[in-house]
Amino acid sequence: MLDFLLTSDAIMALLTLTFLEIILGIDNIVFISIAANKLPENQRSKATNIGLLLAMIQRIVLLFFVSFLVGLSEPFYSLETSWFEIHVSWQAIILLAGGLFLIYKSTSEIREKVTDPSHDEDDVKNKRIKSLSQALTQILIIDFIFSIDSILTAVGMTNSLHPNHNYTLVLMIIAVMISIVIMIAFANPIRKFIEKNPSIQMLGLAFLILIGFMLITEAAHLSHTEFFGKTVGAIPKGYLYFAIAFSLFVEFLNYKTVNRKKNKSNPKQT
User: Fold this and answer.
1) Per-residue model confidence as pLDDT tens for the chain (270 residues)
2) Is the N or C terminus of the chain more exposed, i.e. has fewer CB atoms within 10 Å?
């Protein structure tokens, strides 16, 4: 297993997954902060840290469940016609449903953030919290909703990296643990940085749309789908890694350009 974790594909997948988990966890951090701020000041930090730790445990449990379903690769239904052929398995169904969900969730999130950025935050603010247990319950519910897309993203990024699903499961768990530890240590700085640079989060949502399409094609490929004798192929992970790296590089250049313009327009007073 160590040999697999040290391969370039596994390291690239780990770095990309950790980045996406943090980006996708920004909303989660915001909602946890809102829920924790309703408690007495001496309990807020405790609620935030415990909430994120419980979130990590919850995501790992969900990873085991989803990975088990993805491992069911034997076809249970086949359809063959003169122009179409498919062999459906639970693995393909989970990936197809996950891809459709990611595309729907991402486009919905982008639309909400453009039209009404504070909608979800207002819903959380309106819920009353009287005790630490109530805060943790609300945090777990919020995290469960946000865990689905992050877990499907992890499955999409690591599926087919190794024939042994236990290896990819370990990789996903490591990425989740690293991202949660980073969020616990730097929750507020990360949240403030994203608030100042909302394009980063929008970029993360755009990546989810790409991953959603990749999951759909992966499902068709694993089902040995054929149209008019042409087999649907899987999208190489390297294309996705390049798109993400290139987009981040462009965003970094844009960030430096904007900051330079701000510095020129607001020179320091001497």
Assistant:
1) 677 787 887 888 888 888 877 776 766 676 776 677 677 777 777 777 787 788 788 888 888 887 777 767 788 888 888 888 888 888 788 888 878 887 887 888 788 777 766 655 555 555 556 677 777 777 777 677 667 767 777 777 776 677 777 778 888 888 888 888 888 787 667 666 766 777 777 887 788 788 788 888 888 888 888 888 788 877 777 777 788 788 888 888 888 888 787 777 776 544
2) C
Round to whole Å and give the CA distance between 212 and 207: 9
Determine the structural domain holding residue 201 and report its residue range. 2-259
Q: Decide if 227 is inside a domain.
A: yes
> Does residue 270 lie within any of the structural domains?
no
In contact, 31 and 121? CB cutoff 8 Å: yes
Q: Is the residue at 78 inside a domain? A: yes
Model-level pTM greater than 0.70? no
Number of domains in the chain: 1
